């Protein structure tokens, strides 16, 4: 169920549960069918638990989205620089088959997060470690210092990805916890609302106080 639908359902349940607690006549009528104040307070406790876990789920997904945005933004920024370095390397090392292999600059670039990080790390680490490659790249303005700075950018992307995956896991866990709480609440509410319809079938105005609209016959 989407969050907006859950918001609406929680609001509906809150009206159905809290209004009888505040209305003595309604509470008395429902009490005759097993839903006294204690039972209503139990339902209210289930409702508050579900609301709390729903808010927690929203918070966790907000943190996941923030982490994803930071990671993808840094990756895009780094990739723009990386691709210039790769293009220059292909030009300056066009006759160096071994260098192409070492830097992994053949063919299309990897697009997945893990693939991009692995391939980019190989490029910068192997370039830094090879004096011959360094000498050639320096002709295009790609110095060892620049390579080290860009390697640090790739490593930052990797760190941000780790954070994003952590937040994603926490968001998924929060969803599972929320859904279990919501399921318990809905089981209670389903019985409650069915019995309320029977208990108050001769008092449609009472049903309206609970936010229940009787279907027209």
Write a short abstract of this structure.
With 217 residues, the chain is mostly helical.
What does the model show?
The protein is mainly α. It has one domain. 82% of the residues lie in helices and 0% in strands. The protein starts with a helix and ends in an 8-residue tail after the last helix.
Mean pLDDT metric: 95
Poorly predicted regions are none
SSE topology string: HHHHHHHH
Task: Give the termini distance in whole angstroms.
Answer: 30 Å
Number of helices: 8
Helix content: over 70%
Radius of gyration over all CA atoms, rounded: 31 Å
User: Strand fraction band?
Assistant: under 5%
Largest sheet: none
Instruction: Assign an overall shape.
Output: rod-shaped
Q: Structural class of the secondary structure composition?
A: mainly alpha
Question: Could you tell me the number of beta strands?
Answer: 0
For the record, the count of structural domains works out to 1
């Amino acid at each position: 169920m989407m969050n907006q639908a859950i918001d609406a359902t929680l609001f509906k349940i809150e009206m159905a549960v809290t209004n009888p607690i505040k209305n003595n006549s309604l509470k008395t009528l429902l009490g005759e069918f097993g839903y006294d104040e204690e039972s209503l307070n139990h339902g209210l406790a289930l409702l508050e638990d579900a609301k709390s876990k729903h808010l927690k789920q929203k918070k966790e997904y907000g943190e996941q989205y923030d982490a994803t945005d930071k990671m993808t933004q840094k990756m895009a920024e780094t990739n723009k620089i990386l691709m210039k370095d790769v293009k220059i390397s292909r030009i300056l090392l066009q006759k160096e088959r071994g260098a192409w292999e070492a830097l992994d600059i053949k063919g299309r670039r990897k697009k997945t997060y893990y693939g991009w990080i692995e391939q980019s790390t190989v490029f910068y680490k192997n370039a830094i470690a090879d004096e011959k490659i360094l000498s050639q790249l320096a002709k295009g303005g790609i110095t060892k210092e620049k390579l080290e700075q860009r390697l640090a950018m790739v490593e930052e992307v990797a760190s941000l990805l780790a954070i994003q995956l952590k937040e994603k896991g926490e968001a998924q866990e929060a969803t599972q916890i929320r859904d279990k709480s919501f399921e318990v609440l809905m089981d209670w509410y389903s019985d409650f609302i069915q019995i309320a319809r029977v208990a108050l079938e001769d008092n449609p105005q009472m049903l309206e106080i609970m936010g229940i609209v009787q279907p027209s016959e």
